[in-house]
Amino acid sequence: MVPEFSDNTKGDAMSETVRWGILGAAKFAREHMGPALHLARRGSLAALATSNADKAAPFTSMVPGLRVHNSYDALLADPEIDAVYVPLPNHLHVDYALKALEAGKHVLVEKPLAMAAEGFEPVIAARDASGRLAAEAYMIVHHPQWQTAKALYQAGEIGRLVRVSGAFSYDNSQDIGNIRNTPNTGGGAVPDIGVYIYGATRFVTGEEPEEILSNEIRRENNVDVYSHITARFPSFHYTGVVSMRAAPWQDMTFHGEKGVMRLTAPFNPQVYGEARIELHLGQERRELRFPQVNHYVEQVEAFNRSVLDGDAYPCSLEFSQGTQRMIDRIWAAEGR
Question: 288 has which bridge partners?
């Protein structure tokens, strides 16, 4: 089971909407999360922190009247901000999650929240002490394709699980200055996209890896650009490949004794392709389609409901920490 956020914000005096601020004008925030914060029900994008007027322009065009602070600290001190979204480079995530909680803000932090599992501990402690919601922005579990996949598996549609395979790749070899290609900003394929193929497996099955059996990692400039792992879970065998040096590809397959469940655009639906679940059950083939869902909006709306109504949040820090523990074990097994 996915651990749920145990709410201790219910009854907190707040407006009827969650007023959001963004730390930094990152490309991902501009293209995906900024629009999601603006469009999500029961929330509003109210402020941005950046000292670069050119980078602020797309946000202020999207949200007329958006307040622009010239420093992160100024936004964190803004009394009219309830929650903060942190899309900064990976190595800054823990520090700014803690600063947001210390400022009395709820906080949604891009994945990976921390570069090692122990890095989650101070954020969990600060979350509990502050009574605020803190979460990693692991958007896929909010998408109905993944909620449906989990329900189908738990209902026994494909029978006892035999194997799970996951793949996620793209090619950014020509963008050497990208933070994903830079070791001192926490770059690498595993931190960037490994979290999806590992966490999705844990989400659907509710199981944790018992052993990393093999791990082949290729590095450039001290950054992992390709990883192929095999692992043993209690009831199935796992194979996962991630790469920043291969043609774009996404696939998650759950292979059981009775059938196969495959997700064809598991991580970037609409961008990569239409979200579909294929069920291959002997001679029967079924297809479930989810053409219009924006999982970034779904994520923000779940966050807003948790803050305003005390609803359990679907992806706790403890769940995200479990995925990081798997990554830590992959690093420990490197070259074995």
Answer: 277
pTM: 0.92
pLDDT tens for each residue of 84-141: 999 999 999 999 999 999 999 999 999 999 999 999 999 999 999 999 999 999 999 9
Rounded Cα distance between 330 and 336, Å, is 10
CA 298 to chain CA centroid, Å, is 12
Phi-psi region of 88 (alpha: psi -120 to 50; beta: other; left: phi over 0): beta
3-class DSSP assignment, residue 325: helix
Nearest 10 degrees: CA dihedral of 91, 93, 94, 100? 150
Q: How many residues does the chain have?
A: 336
- Residue 105 is among the residues annotated as catalytic for this protein: no
Query: Which residue is catalytic, options 55, 111, 150, 258?
Result: 111
Helices 120-130, 93-102: axis angle to 10 degrees equals 10
On whether the CB atoms of residues 75 and 105 are closer than 8 A, the answer is no
Question: What are the tens digits of pLDDT across the range 243-293?
Answer: 999 999 999 999 999 999 999 999 999 899 999 999 999 999 999 999 999
